[in-house]
Design brief:
By secondary structure, this protein is of the alpha/beta class. It has one domain: L-arginine/glycine Amidinotransferase, Chain A, CATH 3.75.10. It is 28% helix and 23% strand. The protein is built from ten helices and 15 strands.
């Protein structure tokens, strides 16, 4: 099976044993739960079970899932590995500088070693040293990559430094497309992958969150020029994590992994449009969504050739 540049056929997932919403990320993540009355032990158990269930559903769809356990207590957001590393056709891996100090502990050599052992890895480019200069670029949370057209879409935020973005784009052959976006309350969006999902044949995004009308139209035009169907998401749908989905490829076709919450927030018309190119694969990750991220954040796609 030829590799689909946009939709990976394998992913890395982290199964947390002590999950909890991260207090260090709360100040700038308006999608994170502020309910402090939750039973933390129950939440951790639910998150563990939901990752296990999602793994089974993905594997049943023909997606290769590499699961790593996180038994530690000092990495509350480890369930979101897409922020600290990404992989790219041609055998390239990037490691990223993280804004929250406790998230820097999520980087694991055993995951990189697995990639080298099972896939063809030519080089690993490590940007994490930029943290010492307070420069951050949180992987495919900060950037939503159009692997076909080679464009890196990125919302400006303290987690997405334009200098680091330029460096990544130069080394990985992407064109940076930077823009400002904010939620319905005027709060800046913390990660691009909250509001945008790029598939092979479609893009769904909260375009109205891009307040600069000219920039918004420019971005929509780029997607239209690439032949993609445009699916516009409302602020409410973004809050239900409809933009935080990932297209995946298996031998039986393409799937869109998204949360149950997101699936229920889509309209019949949007689902019909998506069904033209993908099979929707809703995953219940309600406990994990308390931390302000959803299915896309939980899946680090592997765009590498198998050994």
């Amino acid at each position: 099976m030829a590799i689909n540049p946009q939709a990976p056929s394998a992913v890395v997932m982290i199964r947390p044993h002590n999950f909890s919403p991260n207090p260090e990320t709360l100040p700038d993540n308006s999608y994170q739960s502020r309910d402090v009355s939750q039973d933390q032990a129950l939440l951790a158990t639910q998150a563990y079970e939901q990752v296990s269930q999602a793994q089974q559903q993905l594997q049943a769809a023909g997606i290769n899932v590499h699961v790593f356990e996180d038994t530690g207590t000092d990495t509350p957001d480890s369930v979101f590995p897409n922020n600290w590393f990404s992989t790219h056709l041609g055998g390239h891996v990037a490691i990223y500088p993280m804004y929250a100090k406790n998230r820097r502990k999520e980087r694991r050599t055993d995951i990189i070693d697995m990639l080298k052992a099972q896939y063809r890895v030519q080089d690993v480019i490590d940007y994490s040293g930029l943290e010492y200069d307070n420069i951050y670029l949180e992987g495919t949370g900060a950037m939503v990559l159009d692997h076909i057209e080679r464009v890196a879409y990125a919302v400006r935020s303290k987690r997405t430094d334009s200098l680091a973005l330029e460096r990544f784009c130069t080394q990985f052959n992407f064109e940076p497309m930077v823009f400002d976006a904010e939620d319905e309350a005027g709060v800046p969006i913390y990660h691009t992958n909250v509001l945008m999902c790029i598939g092979s044949d479609f893009v769904m995004a909260g375009f109205n969150m891009i307040k600069d009308v000219a920039r918004r139209q420019q971005i929509i035009s780029r997607f239209e020029d690439s032949g993609r169907t445009i699916i516009d998401l409302t602020d409410k749908q973004i809050r239900h994590f409809c933009g935080n989905a990932l297209e995946l490829q298996s031998k039986t076709g393409r799937y869109l992994a998204l949360s149950q919450c997101a699936y229920q927030a889509l309209t019949h018309e949007q689902i019909a449009l998506l069904n033209q190119s993908v099979t929707l694969l809703p995953l219940n990750v309600s406990a994990i969504e308390m931390a302000g991220g959803s299915v896309r954040c939980m899946l680090a796609g592997i765009h590498l050739s198998k050994r």
